[in-house]
Amino acid sequence: MAKPSFWNIGRKKPVFLRLRMILLVVLGLIFSSSVSLLPSNSRLLAQKPSPPVGGLFYASASVSSTSEQVKAPSNTEQLMQQGKTLYQAGQFAEAAQSFQQSARVYEFQKDAFNQALALNYLSLTEQKLGRWNQANVAITTSLNLLNQLKLNTSDMKHILALVLNTQGSLQLALGQAENALESWQKAANIYAEIGDTAGKTGTLINQATAFQSLGLYRRTMRIFEQVKKNLDSTPNSLLKISGLRSYGNVLLASGNIDESQKVLEQSLALAQQLPASQEESSILLSLGNAAFALGNRNLLKDTINSEDNFLPSHCAQGTMQESDRPRDRSQKEHRFAISQRLDAKRIAQTNNAESYYRKATELYHKSANKSTLTLTAVQAQLNRLKVLQYLQKQPTDEDLRAIQSSLLNLTPSRGAVYAKVNFAQSLVCLTQGGGEWGEDKRTTREISNSPIQNRATKIQNSQEIIHLLNTAVQQAKDLKDTRAESYSLGYLGQFYEMEKQWSQAQRYTESALNLAQIINAPDIAYQWEWQLGRLLLVQGDRKAATVAYTTAVETLKSIRSDLVALNPDVQFDFRDEVEPVYRQLVALLLQPSQISSEKAGIKGEVSQKNLKQARDAIETLQLAELDNFFRDACITVKPKQIDEVVDNANPATAVFYSIILTDSIETIVKLPQRKELRHYTTDKPKAEVESTLEALRQKLEQRYTFRDREELSKEVYKWIIKPAIADLEQSNVKNLVFVLDGSLRNIPMAALYDGNQYLIEKYSIVLSPGLQLLADKSKRERFEALTAGLTESRLNLSPLPNVATELKQIAAVIPSKQLLNEDFTQKSVEKQVDSASYRIVHLATHGKFSSQQEETFILAWDGKIKIKELGEVLQTREQVVGRSSRVPPPIELLVLSACETATGDKRAALGLAGFAVRSGARSTLASLWQVDDNSTSILMSKFYRQLTRDPKITKAEALRRAQVFVLQDKGHPFYWAPYVLVGNWL
After folding, report:
1. Where are the domains of the chain?
2. DSSP structural state of residue 839
3. CATH of 785-983, one of 3.40.50.1460, 3.40.50.2000, 3.30.70.260, 3.30.930.10
4. What share of the chain is helix, strand, coil (3-state, %, to 5)?
5. Which H, E and C letters describe 592-644, residue by residue?
6. Of 290, 437, 467, 922, which shows the fewest CB atoms inside 10 Å?
7. For the chain, what percent of residues have pLDDT higher than 90?
8. In whole angstroms, what is the distance from residue 228 CA to residue 877 CA?
């Protein structure tokens, strides 16, 4: 078959933050009534957009007095107003034409000022359309015109500030955060000069957004605190209400859900005082989004990783999915099955997800009733419909008819197009069945024949879904909105994929992909590349499918910094629509070319090229998971020749890459001085793997378990280690590095048992989130340590009386500065790190690792230190470089000796990896569960003595000896196994 156009995509890396406009300059919401709605498959709940502060309505309101000085013909004024009206209606192509015509008329009249203003509006509109070159030409010309004029009035200076804001929004959209900051700083100076508090506040929010995109969270929050003060001192008005709502939306998008709720509730209270019905509706919509995000946050803790859906999951309950090991028709007929993804009732009972979802539906209902704008009401209705799916409840016919009626009344716009696509996706989900919370045990046939399903089908059958999507496509074409057209075509292709109409699905998918490439929209292009890969595979073209999947992963890598800004519900979206792309690629690459032995552990016929590509995909997935955890892409990646890292390591080191797929555990092993990678497959259903790992973790934490624990430990040993034993012995390997996936991260590899001895008795062991993140080797020198800890109870957590002994024993071995109890605060640690070049930081205090960064912390005397705050504290001295000619060395070792992973959080070990990476330390030593602090004191003392006595010993070997020492005394892994070394093992 002919190869579609995407095969020849250049490997440029355009960093377009299309949807970051939602986060950008949120004060423009104060005056804008335009709205935006993404299709449901993106899992972005509909909410008010945040156009730039230089937005059209805001600019026009500020320009009124200027227009009295700079008179223009009435027909030109009407043309400008027409453009503003079209912009607010979401008819961006028509608006662009109006502004372009206005600019030409003003140019002909030699009215440079109004020409600059029209070009400013044109740039904003072109940004909405994704036409970045045209947007740049327009704003550059606008600035050049203004710079040639004598701006001698406040109003004229105000317009210059608006244009600078527009330039900043474009620069940030193009990934030029530093340039955006410079533009916005100039705008802020102008606003300060002319006394425009509102403009200055909006520009501050712009700057905060840019700092956030650069990962400078301390600066971001400082600016937000100033913004909040400005708004708090502002009298109650629409300006203040909308400003707070915008601030709340930014907090929500950045993951600060609890703080977002507080700000939004403050905004709502003010709106109810005026009253301001439309603002109240918009705030209720945002509060609904916050409640939905809280439900998802609780839901995430009970799930391990994505279900590796063959299709992206846009349905909460009846998810159409396939194994993550794709099959072509010669192996297995492609099919879709209705699968219960989650035991929703259990999750609701344990994590309150249900209560948050119900709260969200109430807020959306109130928002729809309050709204004076049809599109806002539709947004609320569609969001409510989505949450009902999470509650596994069928909407009423009245609900569906209300949405249908509202859709018919929408003025053509991008928001209207997305609303139709969103509704079509929801209808697809409804055809898969309903029922109460996880209680529907009927078969697919029984669901199809039920009265509820028959009633729903009368309203939303396949023809209606196709009609909705075709209407969306045509409307996008009429609007000349290429981005919306690509979305509509892509989801039309996905629907035909669900219907197993492969040729139709491929035709629409290729059309959608072509449009996404034309407008350089990689954030949607990867979805259609992934979709095309699935379609090619199901039609038997594995080679082309592999290329498509590979292209999708490369596209995802090119927008690494954008993924966290694509929507406010990033983590849930990531696990449904990003993570499976990597997993399915790995599964596809590791399929043997021919059926190999059915015996587990026998290497299949997988090429070395495929093995290396699969290993790289696993490394990239590890990085993507951390980006998603932090909601930024500010982790420094140092591209390394992984083989060289292993081959040059001393002692001899082997690296294990293990990934859990639907029906197997796949392990790739890099051996020292061996060019070829080894590959082992253990055929085990994912459910059995997860159950075994969970049981083993529980037994390891119980002090009096023996036979059951040993049997479980031997089972996992057979999966991961046993197939490689002969290779390890032949290569004389002494050190094992594990790059682990999912629930495997919750198991200390040191505790794996071969029937005679534990793995730690034979090998030193280290965990790595990926060798691309491996810190460089350091020169061994005399270390000084900063030690800190708590012996007394704080925040109702138990006292740790042996911490004082632990710190004293460290001081006997290594020169140390000690901070105990009330001396141990965030500021005191920061001061010490800033003033001295400590190579070791040892924190003996309570801490928790969680899959949610907001719940990952260590405890100081004055409260919790969150993971990002700790990272900034430990890296403070990097900011001192400008004040000193000597660059301080990085922290060699961070020790967290009394931490634990969050109970009931199956992905909590991700928090440990996050701590290790964010701290900036070369190595991190931490505990997976809390141990008797006397045992901890003994192990830590032994570790430091080993480390200081032998200058050639590695940190991994020092830890191994300390663990074996405690093992020989205590025996049970509970006492010695939880301590894991992450990062550089040398």
Report:
1. 20-36+45-233, 617-773, 785-983
2. S
3. 3.40.50.1460
4. 60, 10, 30
5. CCCCCCCCCCCCCCCCHHHHHHHHHHHHHHHHHHHHHHHCCCCCCCCCCCHHH
6. 467
7. 48
8. 29
